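Work Package 4 report. The design task specified in the project plan requires that, given a folded chain encoded as structure tokens, an amino acid be chosen for each position. We show below one input record used in the internal validation round.
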């Protein structure tokens, strides 16, 4: 366990930080914003927990921040939630990922910048749907399995910089639309956690030649309907600057829950990094915001 002292205007504050494998404590803390923390909550399941490392910060024995690192993917996903002082302390003493793909609320990014060079954000919206708000859109879809992984990857290579392994398809829920033997639209899952009653839709993509026909709604609807049979809550992420996608998901009954940033971050390794990194990030954000 490590401790860090922060000086405020009125009083000195001492935070304690340490690693933890206490899933009950983590779930209780993450449950304060269950929808924003959906992926992290799902990662407390038995099937995923061994791939994660967790740091937690306490103020007078009360948890105030959590950081989670997911191993096995490069760059490693990094999730932060809670008070900025606590996030900074955890990143200083416990979680020191060299390169990571960060998911954070905008107000938490400054704490991450104390330890990382932070690239320009992809502003995201977390959306949510439940059985009582879901409005399905039906169409001719097919359930996909691991034998379809090469067809999915052929489609996703047109828009994603990622490769989907067969086991991901086998362990998830994927639906697609075909024209003849050609897969032209698909949607799937990022996480499924019946144990915690939460799941996430992901990997939604339509071939450019077939856009404007509502296919994204059809495949997303099929995946959502299947997930809602197992989980009470389904979430998805969409870029904040993608109005057509936002409208499509709203038509299915999804609503916006919160905005957050996804950013690539690099651990500062020198005094020069600690000085120049925040300046680069400020200039990048300034250019992005006009």
């Amino acid at each position: 366990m490590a401790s860090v002292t922060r000086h405020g205007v009125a009083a000195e504050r001492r935070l304690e930080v340490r690693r933890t494998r206490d899933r009950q404590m983590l779930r209780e803390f993450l449950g304060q914003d269950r929808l924003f923390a959906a992926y992290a909550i799902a990662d407390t399941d038995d099937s995923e927990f061994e791939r994660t490392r967790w740091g937690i910060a306490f103020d007078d024995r009360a948890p105030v921040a959590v950081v989670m690192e997911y191993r096995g993917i490069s760059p490693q996903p990094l999730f932060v939630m809670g008070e900025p002082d606590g996030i900074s302390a955890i990143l200083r003493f416990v979680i020191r990922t060299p390169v990571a793909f960060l998911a954070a609320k905008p107000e938490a990014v400054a704490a991450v910048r104390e330890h990382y060079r932070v690239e320009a954000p992809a502003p995201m919206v977390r959306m949510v749907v439940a059985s009582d708000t879901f409005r399905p859109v039906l169409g001719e879809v097919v359930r996909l399995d691991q034998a379809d992984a090469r067809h999915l990857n052929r489609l996703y290579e047109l828009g994603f910089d990622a490769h989907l392994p067969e086991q991901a398809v086998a362990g998830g829920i994927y639906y697609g639309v075909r024209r003849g033997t050609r897969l032209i639209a698909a949607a799937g899952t990022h996480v499924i956690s019946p144990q915690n009653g939460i799941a996430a839709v992901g990997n939604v993509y339509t071939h450019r030649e077939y856009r404007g026909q509502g296919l994204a709604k059809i495949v997303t609807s099929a995946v959502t309907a299947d997930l809602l049979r197992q989980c009470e809550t389904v979430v998805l992420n969409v870029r904040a600057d993608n109005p057509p996608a936002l409208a499509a998901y709203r038509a299915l009954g999804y609503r916006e829950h919160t905005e957050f940033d996804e950013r690539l971050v690099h651990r500062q390794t020198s005094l020069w990094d600690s000085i120049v990194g925040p300046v680069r990030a400020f200039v990048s954000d300034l250019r992005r915001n006009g």
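Confidence is low (pLDDT under 50) at residues 7-11. Validation will be extended to a larger panel in the next phase.
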